[in-house]
Write a structure and sequence with these properties.
Elements: H1 8-11, E1 14-17, H2 25-29, H3 45-56, H4 69-74, E2 81-88, H5 93-109, E3 113-121, H6 133-146, E4 150-153, H7 159-169, E5 172-175, H8 176-187, H9 191-221, H10 227-272, E6 277-282, H11 288-296, E7 313-318, E8 324-329, H12 339-344, H13 346-353, E9 357-363, H14 369-382, E10 390-395, H15 402-411, E11 415-417, H16 426-436, E12 442-448, H17 453-462, E13 464-470, E14 475-481, H18 483-489
Parallel strand pairs: 2-3, 2-4, 4-5, 6-8, 6-9, 9-10, 10-11
Antiparallel strand pairs: 1-3, 7-8, 12-14, 13-14
Helix pairs in contact: 5-8, 8-9, 9-10
Bound molecules: guanosine-5'-triphosphate and magnesium ion.
Length: 497
């Protein structure tokens, strides 16, 4: 199998995960995973499978040849039947499997059917073809056997790597970044969300246009006889495309800036009213939207898919003692979130940074919850939200291993285990939020005439009532309120106390 151009690198332990039906990350973990990185003499069923596969390779899949070059050029993703490929450079076998399982979940979220997954152990990705060239040819066999139309690489590949690997496997090759961008594009609903994703996609595409163009002209040039005559128009078209994209990006940036102003005004209004804000943050699929629904009864979309939520939702909620606050659902985080998207979604993250309290939701039933916690904290740090108080909400307690829950509760000092599904721990969480929310700072004693009942309601909603008495002249209130409300109540401070 190994050719002269792919020496010892490919002889390194090569591990392949056979995964017929990778449904979701957690589902995969229960799959039969066959590792075959022993020496060649050790044969098992998997190797047998592989020899069969090799025998099949000339028969199947010819229809998946790249026919329409414009499809390559514009990289419109129409993922249908995909094979995953990862390079395992460090960490344990389990880490690399988790990473590929997450890629599988991402691919499924994008609407693809995952046919197979392959991991190669290497010191670092091959600069030319991501995986070694020998393994790239084996990947080609798998593509042919399964009839896959796309290979998805677990990482961000350079334009050159994408082309080189595509040349070997003869089907579309996309990377993790493109996949996440595609999911975001499918899920964004608000005008702002859509614009941000479109901008990120264009940013990603821009440096890659040249690469695809080169691939295109090479194909047009055939055996080298084409020369400038055939290459010329292709280059010109790329230049035009790039200019068009740049113009569009500039326009989009202006639009986004305008939309941002609108949102900023709303946020300032909330702040002026001094309604404390709580942000629900956490890894994608941790159960953030479920928790928001559980805490407020809001009907937010919950889905067993990654990035179900791409538009921030803000709801009003009330503590057990009757104080109002806002609760914001946010976009889920994922490891190695494409840089362009971190930028694009900075606005939602900013919301997290400016909140009074972060509910950091983590899926207690996930195989590696600590990693998810760390990945999210990295982003929290990036947006300068480290000083915002945080409650770690270990969700899915109903499905989690009790030992894992214990471990997390021990490591995380300010944590609580809940189940958004069964409601377990929710009352405790609500009480905890009440304790953690900033308290209004001005203490007042007022006598509000019954004709101004609205003010009394505001004290109940926005402040903390210490005592309340109904007298003949009106409501006698002792309370703690924020400055603005204190000012509104000033006329009702009794002259003599
Ligand atoms: N077993 C169990 N499943 C839960 C629980 N909470 C949420 N889920 C499931 O987890 C999946 C993801 O829930 P969401 O609330 O959409 O998660 P999210 O964090 O908002 O996800 P994104 O918006 O995609 O980032 C859904 O299938 C939920 O039904 C829970 O307490 N227990
Ligand atoms: Mg959600």
């Amino acid at each position: 199998m190994t050719s002269s151009s792919s020496p010892s690198q490919d002889e390194q332990s090569f591990a392949e995960t056979r995964t017929e039906s990778l449904r979701a990350a957690d589902a995969l973990m229960e799959e039969d995973v066959a590792w075959s990185h022993e020496i060649d003499t050790e044969r098992d069923g998997d190797q047998f499978d592989r020899s069969e596969r090799a025998a099949l390779r000339r028969v199947a899949g010819l229809s998946t040849e790249l026919e329409d070059v414009t499809e390559v050029e514009y990289r419109q993703l129409r993922l249908e039947r995909v094979v995953l490929v990862g390079v395992w450079t460090s960490g344990t076998v389990q880490d690399s499997e988790n990473s590929l399982a997450e890629l599988a979940a991402l691919a499924e979220t994008a609407g693809a059917l995952v046919l197979d997954g392959v991991i190669q152990r290497r010191d670092k990705p091959d600069p030319a073809t991501f995986i070694g060239s020998g393994k790239a040819r084996e990947l080609r066999d798998i593509v042919l056997e399964t009839g896959a139309d796309t290979v998805v690489c677990d990482g961000e590949l350079g334009p050159g790597q994408l082309i080189a690997l595509e040349d070997v496997v003869k089907v579309k090759v996309v990377d993790r970044t493109a996949l996440i961008l595609d999911i975001f594009a499918q899920h964004a609903k608000s005008r702002e969300g859509k614009a941000q994703v479109a901008l990120a996609q264009m940013q990603y595409m821009l440096p890659r246009l040249r690469g695809w163009g080169q691939s295109l002209s090479r194909q047009m040039g055939g055996g080298g006889g084409g020369g400038m005559a055939t290459r010329g128009p292709g280059e010109t078209k790329i230049e035009t495309d790039r200019r068009r994209i740049r113009e569009k990006m500039a326009k989009m940036r202006r639009e986004i800036a305008e939309m941002k102003t609108g949102r900023e005004i709303k946020r300032q209004e909330r702040r002026r009213n001094k309604v404390p804000s709580v942000a629900i943050a956490g890894y994608t699929n941790a159960g953030k939207s479920s928790l928001l629904n559980r805490l407020t009864g809001a009907g937010v979309l919950v889905e067993n898919a990654l990035f179900a939520t791409l538009d921030p939702t803000v709801r009003r909620a009330e503590t057990p003692s009757g104080r109002l606050y806002t609760l914001a659902d946010t976009v889920g985080f994922v490891r190695h979130l494409p840089h362009h998207l971190v930028e694009a979604f900075r606005s939602t993250m900013e919301e997290v940074g400016e909140s009074d309290l972060i509910l950091h939701v983590v899926d207690g039933s996930h195989p590696a919850p600590e990693e998810q916690l760390a990945a999210v904290r990295e982003v929290i740090r990036d947006v300068g939200a480290l000083d915002v108080p945080e409650i770690v909400v270990i969700n899915k307690a109903d499905a989690a291993d009790p030992l894992v829950l214990q471990r997390l509760l021990r490591i995380e000092r300010h944590a609580i285990a809940v189940s958004a599904r069964t409601g377990k721990g929710i009352d405790e969480l609500l009480a905890l939020i009440d304790v953690e929310l900033p308290r209004p700072e001005v203490e007042i004693e007022v006598l509000v005439p019954y004709t101004h009942g609205g003010l009394v309601s505001r004290v109940h909603a926005e402040g903390e009532v210490l005592s309340e008495e109904h007298t003949t002249e009106g409501t006698l209130l002792k309370a703690r309120v924020h400055e603005e409300l204190a000012a509104a109540l000033a006329p009702y401070v009794p002259a003599t106390r």
